[in-house]
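<goal> How does this chain fold?
<sample>
Here is the protein in question

***
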Amino acid sequence: MGKVAWGFTSSIDGFIAGPGHDMGWFETLEPLPPGLTERMAGAVGVIISGRRGYDAAKAQQGERDEATAEAYGGAWSGTEFILTHRPEELAGDPAVTALNCGVVEAVRRAQEIAGEKDVQIISADIARQALEHGLIDELQVFVAPVLLGDGIRIFDVPGGSRHDWELTGIIAGAERSFGRTYRPRRS
């Protein structure tokens, strides 16, 4: 079975999207070496996303560039779960599978489909819930050289619990983007 990974690119000040899920700041990213995005995308069998991010991506279709219009800039193909309390509203989109369930059930279903490949969570809120249940095996971090000042934080849980991580690798070719992988530090 593959791992459950939470992958994101953040601004230096800790945002994964600007106000209204704006992704225009991705243009500040350092270029990645040829093949890295495709290699990372190839490891992923299922992506779990949230409804707010899905809705924002649909609303911004004409504004998003190649890097942010599709997962992994279009290099990925597989099953994408959108967690929503209104799955019937997404019934007309054959590119996604809408699920109305908790994160534990969503990850279980995703792992069944992904098999030996990874499950990638790309929603801060869903990742927070997965962390609460001990479901995240790996954190994949990239940092863009920009300060956004506002938007959607990587991890914003007032009164929440602490989660310690240990470095497992530096992503070759992504050093300028602070490409790192971490695993949960177990006591």
Observations:
- Strands lie at 4-11, 15-17, 44-50, 79-83, 97-99, 118-121, 138-144, 152-153, 165-170, 180-184.
- The longest strand covers residues 4-11.
- The helical segments are 36-42, 51-59, 66-69, 103-114, 124-132.
- The mean pLDDT is 89.
